[in-house]
Specification:
Blueprint: H1 2-12, H2 21-66, H3 71-113, H4 115-142, H5 144-162, H6 186-193, H7 200-217, H8 235-252, H9 258-264, H10 268-281, H11 294-314, H12 318-335, H13 342-360, H14 368-383, H15 385-388
Protein backbone atom coordinates (compact mmCIF):
# COMPACT_ATOMS: atom_id res chain seq x y z
CA UNK A 1 0.00 0.00 0.00
CA UNK A 2 2.92 2.32 0.75
CA UNK A 3 4.27 2.14 -2.79
CA UNK A 4 0.86 2.98 -4.21
CA UNK A 5 0.62 6.14 -2.09
CA UNK A 6 4.19 7.04 -2.95
CA UNK A 7 3.45 6.61 -6.66
CA UNK A 8 0.29 8.77 -6.38
CA UNK A 9 2.14 11.61 -4.67
CA UNK A 10 4.99 11.34 -7.17
CA UNK A 11 2.43 11.87 -9.99
CA UNK A 12 0.40 14.69 -8.44
CA UNK A 13 2.62 16.29 -5.80
CA UNK A 14 4.37 18.93 -7.95
CA UNK A 15 7.27 19.78 -10.27
CA UNK A 16 9.93 19.09 -7.63
CA UNK A 17 8.99 15.39 -7.61
CA UNK A 18 8.31 14.70 -11.33
CA UNK A 19 7.90 11.07 -12.34
CA UNK A 20 10.05 9.52 -15.07
CA UNK A 21 9.00 10.48 -18.58
CA UNK A 22 8.28 6.87 -19.59
CA UNK A 23 5.84 6.40 -16.70
CA UNK A 24 4.18 9.74 -17.50
CA UNK A 25 3.76 8.69 -21.14
CA UNK A 26 2.30 5.31 -20.17
CA UNK A 27 -0.17 6.96 -17.79
CA UNK A 28 -1.16 9.44 -20.48
CA UNK A 29 -1.70 6.62 -23.03
CA UNK A 30 -3.73 4.66 -20.47
CA UNK A 31 -6.00 7.65 -19.81
CA UNK A 32 -6.36 8.23 -23.56
CA UNK A 33 -7.38 4.58 -24.08
CA UNK A 34 -9.93 4.90 -21.25
CA UNK A 35 -11.32 8.04 -22.88
CA UNK A 36 -11.54 6.34 -26.30
CA UNK A 37 -13.22 3.24 -24.86
CA UNK A 38 -15.72 5.44 -23.07
CA UNK A 39 -16.54 7.20 -26.35
CA UNK A 40 -16.98 3.85 -28.13
CA UNK A 41 -19.22 2.61 -25.32
CA UNK A 42 -21.31 5.78 -25.55
CA UNK A 43 -21.76 5.30 -29.30
CA UNK A 44 -22.54 1.58 -28.90
CA UNK A 45 -25.23 2.12 -26.24
CA UNK A 46 -26.88 4.88 -28.28
CA UNK A 47 -26.85 2.60 -31.33
CA UNK A 48 -28.56 -0.17 -29.34
CA UNK A 49 -31.27 2.25 -28.18
CA UNK A 50 -31.75 3.52 -31.72
CA UNK A 51 -32.20 -0.04 -33.04
CA UNK A 52 -34.72 -0.85 -30.30
CA UNK A 53 -36.62 2.37 -31.04
CA UNK A 54 -36.64 1.67 -34.78
CA UNK A 55 -37.87 -1.88 -34.22
CA UNK A 56 -40.68 -0.73 -31.91
CA UNK A 57 -41.68 1.99 -34.36
CA UNK A 58 -41.85 -0.52 -37.22
CA UNK A 59 -44.05 -2.78 -35.09
CA UNK A 60 -46.41 0.12 -34.37
CA UNK A 61 -46.48 1.04 -38.04
CA UNK A 62 -47.22 -2.55 -39.07
CA UNK A 63 -50.07 -2.84 -36.56
CA UNK A 64 -51.45 0.52 -37.71
CA UNK A 65 -51.54 -0.67 -41.33
CA UNK A 66 -53.41 -3.82 -40.32
CA UNK A 67 -56.09 -1.92 -38.41
CA UNK A 68 -57.30 1.38 -39.89
CA UNK A 69 -58.56 2.75 -36.58
CA UNK A 70 -55.20 2.12 -34.90
CA UNK A 71 -53.68 4.64 -37.29
CA UNK A 72 -55.33 7.40 -35.31
CA UNK A 73 -53.24 6.48 -32.23
CA UNK A 74 -50.02 5.93 -34.16
CA UNK A 75 -48.68 9.49 -33.77
CA UNK A 76 -49.29 9.52 -30.01
CA UNK A 77 -47.63 6.13 -29.57
CA UNK A 78 -44.60 7.28 -31.56
CA UNK A 79 -44.40 10.40 -29.37
CA UNK A 80 -44.40 8.26 -26.20
CA UNK A 81 -41.74 6.04 -27.73
CA UNK A 82 -39.55 9.01 -28.63
CA UNK A 83 -39.92 10.49 -25.15
CA UNK A 84 -38.86 7.20 -23.59
CA UNK A 85 -35.88 6.96 -25.97
CA UNK A 86 -34.80 10.54 -25.16
CA UNK A 87 -34.83 9.79 -21.43
CA UNK A 88 -32.56 6.76 -21.93
CA UNK A 89 -30.21 8.75 -24.18
CA UNK A 90 -29.94 11.57 -21.62
CA UNK A 91 -29.16 9.08 -18.87
CA UNK A 92 -26.45 7.35 -20.92
CA UNK A 93 -24.89 10.62 -22.09
CA UNK A 94 -24.81 11.98 -18.53
CA UNK A 95 -23.01 8.86 -17.29
CA UNK A 96 -20.35 8.86 -20.02
CA UNK A 97 -19.82 12.63 -19.95
CA UNK A 98 -19.07 12.42 -16.22
CA UNK A 99 -16.49 9.71 -16.90
CA UNK A 100 -14.86 11.68 -19.71
CA UNK A 101 -14.84 14.82 -17.58
CA UNK A 102 -13.09 12.95 -14.77
CA UNK A 103 -10.43 11.63 -17.20
CA UNK A 104 -9.83 15.12 -18.62
CA UNK A 105 -9.43 16.55 -15.12
CA UNK A 106 -6.88 13.83 -14.27
CA UNK A 107 -4.88 14.64 -17.44
CA UNK A 108 -4.92 18.37 -16.65
CA UNK A 109 -3.79 17.86 -13.04
CA UNK A 110 -1.11 15.35 -14.06
CA UNK A 111 0.25 17.71 -16.74
CA UNK A 112 0.15 20.68 -14.37
CA UNK A 113 2.11 18.79 -11.71
CA UNK A 114 4.58 17.39 -14.26
CA UNK A 115 5.22 20.33 -16.60
CA UNK A 116 8.56 19.10 -17.96
CA UNK A 117 7.16 15.70 -18.89
CA UNK A 118 4.08 17.35 -20.42
CA UNK A 119 6.25 19.72 -22.49
CA UNK A 120 8.46 16.84 -23.64
CA UNK A 121 5.43 14.80 -24.74
CA UNK A 122 3.96 17.76 -26.61
CA UNK A 123 7.27 18.41 -28.43
CA UNK A 124 7.52 14.74 -29.39
CA UNK A 125 3.94 14.73 -30.67
CA UNK A 126 4.63 17.84 -32.74
CA UNK A 127 7.66 16.10 -34.23
CA UNK A 128 5.54 13.09 -35.21
CA UNK A 129 2.92 15.28 -36.86
CA UNK A 130 5.55 17.26 -38.77
CA UNK A 131 7.19 14.06 -40.00
CA UNK A 132 3.86 12.58 -41.06
CA UNK A 133 2.81 15.81 -42.80
CA UNK A 134 6.11 15.96 -44.73
CA UNK A 135 5.67 12.35 -45.85
CA UNK A 136 2.14 13.04 -47.03
CA UNK A 137 3.22 16.13 -48.96
CA UNK A 138 5.92 14.14 -50.73
CA UNK A 139 3.47 11.40 -51.60
CA UNK A 140 0.96 13.94 -52.87
CA UNK A 141 3.60 15.60 -55.05
CA UNK A 142 4.65 12.28 -56.60
CA UNK A 143 1.13 10.98 -57.24
CA UNK A 144 -0.79 14.21 -57.83
CA UNK A 145 -2.07 13.28 -61.29
CA UNK A 146 -3.32 9.88 -60.14
CA UNK A 147 -4.95 10.85 -56.85
CA UNK A 148 -6.80 14.01 -57.87
CA UNK A 149 -9.62 12.24 -59.73
CA UNK A 150 -10.02 9.73 -56.88
CA UNK A 151 -10.28 12.56 -54.33
CA UNK A 152 -12.99 14.23 -56.37
CA UNK A 153 -14.87 10.94 -56.58
CA UNK A 154 -14.77 10.42 -52.81
CA UNK A 155 -15.93 13.97 -52.16
CA UNK A 156 -18.77 13.53 -54.64
CA UNK A 157 -19.79 10.20 -53.11
CA UNK A 158 -19.67 11.70 -49.63
CA UNK A 159 -21.80 14.66 -50.68
CA UNK A 160 -24.30 12.33 -52.30
CA UNK A 161 -24.60 10.29 -49.10
CA UNK A 162 -24.98 13.33 -46.84
CA UNK A 163 -27.44 15.25 -49.03
CA UNK A 164 -31.05 14.73 -48.03
CA UNK A 165 -34.07 15.72 -50.08
CA UNK A 166 -35.96 18.62 -48.55
CA UNK A 167 -39.72 18.23 -48.25
CA UNK A 168 -41.55 20.58 -50.62
CA UNK A 169 -43.09 23.43 -48.71
CA UNK A 170 -46.77 23.13 -47.85
CA UNK A 171 -47.14 19.34 -48.13
CA UNK A 172 -49.56 18.25 -45.37
CA UNK A 173 -50.36 14.58 -45.98
CA UNK A 174 -49.42 11.77 -48.36
CA UNK A 175 -51.69 11.25 -51.37
CA UNK A 176 -52.33 7.53 -51.85
CA UNK A 177 -53.79 8.07 -55.34
CA UNK A 178 -51.80 10.96 -56.82
CA UNK A 179 -52.19 9.89 -60.46
CA UNK A 180 -55.73 8.53 -60.42
CA UNK A 181 -57.99 9.97 -63.10
CA UNK A 182 -61.00 11.58 -61.43
CA UNK A 183 -63.91 12.48 -63.71
CA UNK A 184 -66.93 14.52 -62.76
CA UNK A 185 -70.15 12.90 -63.93
CA UNK A 186 -72.73 14.91 -65.96
CA UNK A 187 -74.98 15.37 -62.91
CA UNK A 188 -72.18 16.92 -60.84
CA UNK A 189 -71.03 19.06 -63.77
CA UNK A 190 -74.54 20.40 -64.42
CA UNK A 191 -75.14 21.15 -60.78
CA UNK A 192 -71.86 23.00 -60.25
CA UNK A 193 -71.29 24.63 -63.67
CA UNK A 194 -74.91 24.90 -64.87
CA UNK A 195 -74.95 25.62 -68.62
CA UNK A 196 -71.23 25.37 -69.22
CA UNK A 197 -71.73 25.43 -72.99
CA UNK A 198 -74.58 27.95 -72.96
CA UNK A 199 -74.57 31.71 -73.36
CA UNK A 200 -73.70 34.10 -70.56
CA UNK A 201 -77.34 35.16 -70.21
CA UNK A 202 -78.48 31.53 -69.90
CA UNK A 203 -75.84 30.89 -67.26
CA UNK A 204 -76.81 33.95 -65.23
CA UNK A 205 -80.48 33.03 -65.30
CA UNK A 206 -79.75 29.43 -64.27
CA UNK A 207 -77.61 30.55 -61.32
CA UNK A 208 -80.22 33.01 -60.04
CA UNK A 209 -83.07 30.49 -60.34
CA UNK A 210 -81.10 27.77 -58.57
CA UNK A 211 -80.07 30.06 -55.71
CA UNK A 212 -83.69 31.15 -55.30
CA UNK A 213 -84.69 27.50 -54.94
CA UNK A 214 -82.03 27.03 -52.27
CA UNK A 215 -83.13 30.10 -50.30
CA UNK A 216 -86.72 28.83 -50.12
CA UNK A 217 -85.93 25.12 -49.64
CA UNK A 218 -84.92 25.22 -45.95
CA UNK A 219 -85.27 21.52 -45.11
CA UNK A 220 -85.31 20.34 -41.51
CA UNK A 221 -81.99 19.01 -40.23
CA UNK A 222 -81.67 15.40 -39.08
CA UNK A 223 -80.77 14.94 -35.41
CA UNK A 224 -76.98 14.53 -35.20
CA UNK A 225 -77.31 12.39 -32.08
CA UNK A 226 -79.68 9.93 -33.73
CA UNK A 227 -78.27 9.32 -37.22
CA UNK A 228 -75.56 6.66 -37.50
CA UNK A 229 -74.10 4.79 -40.45
CA UNK A 230 -73.59 1.06 -40.97
CA UNK A 231 -70.50 1.16 -38.70
CA UNK A 232 -72.61 2.62 -35.85
CA UNK A 233 -70.57 5.84 -36.03
CA UNK A 234 -72.16 9.26 -35.69
CA UNK A 235 -71.22 12.83 -36.56
CA UNK A 236 -69.11 13.25 -33.43
CA UNK A 237 -67.10 10.06 -34.02
CA UNK A 238 -65.98 11.36 -37.40
CA UNK A 239 -65.26 14.80 -35.98
CA UNK A 240 -62.92 13.10 -33.52
CA UNK A 241 -61.19 11.19 -36.34
CA UNK A 242 -60.77 14.42 -38.27
CA UNK A 243 -59.23 16.15 -35.23
CA UNK A 244 -56.75 13.32 -34.79
CA UNK A 245 -55.83 13.44 -38.49
CA UNK A 246 -55.26 17.23 -38.38
CA UNK A 247 -53.16 16.87 -35.21
CA UNK A 248 -50.86 14.46 -37.05
CA UNK A 249 -50.70 16.83 -40.02
CA UNK A 250 -49.64 19.69 -37.75
CA UNK A 251 -47.20 17.48 -35.87
CA UNK A 252 -45.26 16.30 -38.92
CA UNK A 253 -45.76 19.28 -41.27
CA UNK A 254 -42.63 20.96 -39.89
CA UNK A 255 -40.35 18.01 -40.80
CA UNK A 256 -37.86 19.22 -43.42
CA UNK A 257 -36.40 15.89 -44.56
CA UNK A 258 -38.69 14.44 -47.24
CA UNK A 259 -37.84 10.79 -46.47
CA UNK A 260 -38.60 11.22 -42.77
CA UNK A 261 -41.85 12.96 -43.62
CA UNK A 262 -42.89 10.09 -45.90
CA UNK A 263 -42.35 7.64 -43.04
CA UNK A 264 -44.35 9.62 -40.46
CA UNK A 265 -46.94 11.79 -42.24
CA UNK A 266 -50.61 10.70 -42.35
CA UNK A 267 -52.09 9.25 -45.55
CA UNK A 268 -55.11 10.40 -47.52
CA UNK A 269 -56.71 7.00 -46.87
CA UNK A 270 -57.07 8.04 -43.22
CA UNK A 271 -58.90 11.18 -44.33
CA UNK A 272 -61.19 9.18 -46.60
CA UNK A 273 -62.42 7.19 -43.59
CA UNK A 274 -64.25 10.17 -42.13
CA UNK A 275 -65.18 11.62 -45.54
CA UNK A 276 -66.93 8.38 -46.56
CA UNK A 277 -68.45 8.12 -43.10
CA UNK A 278 -69.96 11.60 -43.39
CA UNK A 279 -71.34 10.82 -46.85
CA UNK A 280 -73.08 7.77 -45.37
CA UNK A 281 -74.49 9.83 -42.48
CA UNK A 282 -76.31 12.14 -44.91
CA UNK A 283 -78.26 9.13 -46.19
CA UNK A 284 -79.26 7.98 -42.70
CA UNK A 285 -82.72 8.91 -41.36
CA UNK A 286 -83.56 10.03 -37.82
CA UNK A 287 -86.71 9.16 -35.84
CA UNK A 288 -88.65 11.99 -37.48
CA UNK A 289 -87.79 10.78 -40.97
CA UNK A 290 -85.31 13.59 -41.66
CA UNK A 291 -82.07 12.91 -43.50
CA UNK A 292 -79.01 15.07 -43.89
CA UNK A 293 -77.78 17.98 -41.82
CA UNK A 294 -76.17 21.22 -42.94
CA UNK A 295 -73.30 20.70 -40.48
CA UNK A 296 -72.35 17.40 -42.13
CA UNK A 297 -72.48 18.92 -45.62
CA UNK A 298 -70.47 21.90 -44.41
CA UNK A 299 -67.81 19.57 -42.98
CA UNK A 300 -67.68 17.67 -46.28
CA UNK A 301 -67.27 20.92 -48.24
CA UNK A 302 -64.19 21.68 -46.16
CA UNK A 303 -62.89 18.12 -46.53
CA UNK A 304 -63.06 18.19 -50.32
CA UNK A 305 -61.46 21.62 -50.54
CA UNK A 306 -58.64 20.38 -48.27
CA UNK A 307 -58.18 17.47 -50.67
CA UNK A 308 -58.22 19.73 -53.76
CA UNK A 309 -55.52 22.00 -52.33
CA UNK A 310 -53.24 19.03 -51.66
CA UNK A 311 -53.62 17.70 -55.20
CA UNK A 312 -52.92 21.21 -56.48
CA UNK A 313 -49.70 21.43 -54.44
CA UNK A 314 -48.35 17.93 -54.97
CA UNK A 315 -49.46 16.94 -58.49
CA UNK A 316 -50.38 18.11 -61.99
CA UNK A 317 -53.58 16.07 -61.81
CA UNK A 318 -56.04 18.66 -63.15
CA UNK A 319 -58.90 16.14 -63.14
CA UNK A 320 -58.50 15.50 -59.40
CA UNK A 321 -58.34 19.23 -58.60
CA UNK A 322 -61.49 19.91 -60.65
CA UNK A 323 -63.31 16.94 -59.09
CA UNK A 324 -62.62 17.87 -55.47
CA UNK A 325 -63.37 21.57 -55.95
CA UNK A 326 -66.64 20.58 -57.64
CA UNK A 327 -67.50 18.25 -54.74
CA UNK A 328 -66.78 21.06 -52.28
CA UNK A 329 -69.15 23.42 -54.16
CA UNK A 330 -71.82 20.72 -54.38
CA UNK A 331 -71.66 20.13 -50.63
CA UNK A 332 -72.03 23.88 -50.01
CA UNK A 333 -75.13 23.88 -52.20
CA UNK A 334 -76.53 20.91 -50.27
CA UNK A 335 -75.79 22.58 -46.93
CA UNK A 336 -77.58 25.82 -47.91
CA UNK A 337 -80.83 23.87 -48.46
CA UNK A 338 -81.22 23.25 -44.73
CA UNK A 339 -82.49 25.44 -41.92
CA UNK A 340 -79.83 27.58 -40.21
CA UNK A 341 -79.40 31.09 -38.89
CA UNK A 342 -78.51 33.95 -41.22
CA UNK A 343 -74.90 34.20 -40.07
CA UNK A 344 -74.17 30.54 -40.83
CA UNK A 345 -75.98 30.77 -44.15
CA UNK A 346 -73.97 33.80 -45.28
CA UNK A 347 -70.71 32.17 -44.18
CA UNK A 348 -71.37 29.04 -46.27
CA UNK A 349 -72.53 31.16 -49.22
CA UNK A 350 -69.27 33.14 -49.12
CA UNK A 351 -67.32 29.89 -48.92
CA UNK A 352 -69.15 28.52 -51.99
CA UNK A 353 -68.42 31.72 -53.91
CA UNK A 354 -64.71 31.57 -53.08
CA UNK A 355 -64.43 28.01 -54.39
CA UNK A 356 -65.43 29.28 -57.81
CA UNK A 357 -62.76 31.93 -57.39
CA UNK A 358 -60.20 29.20 -56.58
CA UNK A 359 -61.02 27.42 -59.82
CA UNK A 360 -60.39 30.38 -62.13
CA UNK A 361 -57.36 31.71 -60.22
CA UNK A 362 -54.07 31.87 -62.15
CA UNK A 363 -52.28 29.15 -60.18
CA UNK A 364 -55.08 26.63 -60.66
CA UNK A 365 -54.24 23.90 -63.20
CA UNK A 366 -57.85 23.26 -64.30
CA UNK A 367 -58.64 23.67 -68.02
CA UNK A 368 -59.63 27.08 -69.40
CA UNK A 369 -63.13 25.86 -70.28
CA UNK A 370 -64.02 25.34 -66.62
CA UNK A 371 -62.07 28.40 -65.51
CA UNK A 372 -64.10 30.74 -67.74
CA UNK A 373 -67.38 29.23 -66.58
CA UNK A 374 -66.36 29.45 -62.92
CA UNK A 375 -65.43 33.12 -63.35
CA UNK A 376 -68.84 33.90 -64.86
CA UNK A 377 -70.66 32.12 -62.02
CA UNK A 378 -68.51 33.92 -59.43
CA UNK A 379 -69.41 37.27 -61.03
CA UNK A 380 -73.14 36.47 -60.97
CA UNK A 381 -73.03 35.42 -57.31
CA UNK A 382 -71.14 38.57 -56.32
CA UNK A 383 -73.34 40.92 -58.36
CA UNK A 384 -76.55 39.48 -56.88
CA UNK A 385 -75.29 38.98 -53.36
CA UNK A 386 -78.13 41.12 -51.94
CA UNK A 387 -80.63 38.59 -53.34
CA UNK A 388 -78.88 35.56 -51.87
CA UNK A 389 -77.80 36.90 -48.46
CA UNK A 390 -79.99 36.49 -45.42
Amino acid sequence: MTWVMDFFFSVFSGPEREIPQVIYALLFILLFIMFALNMIDLFRENLVIYKIFKSEKENLKRRAKQDIFKRQKFALQVDDLMESRNQYVKKICRKHLLRMGFIIILVIIMSWRNPQNAAACIDKAKGWFRTEETTKQNDNTDDKDEEEPATKKYVADDAEENNSIEKPRGYRFILDRPNEKFKIDPELENQVFFYINGTEAMLEQAVIEYMDEIVYAQKENANLFEIVNQNDCNFFNYTSLEDQFKEKVNLYETIKDYQNWLELAPHSSEMEIYINGREELNIAVDENGNSGNYKIWWKLANDYQYYALEYEKQTDNAGAVLYFYSKSIQCCMKALQYEMDGEEYNRIFDYLTMRYHDIFSDQCIISERYKKCAEKIYTVLRNHMDLFYK
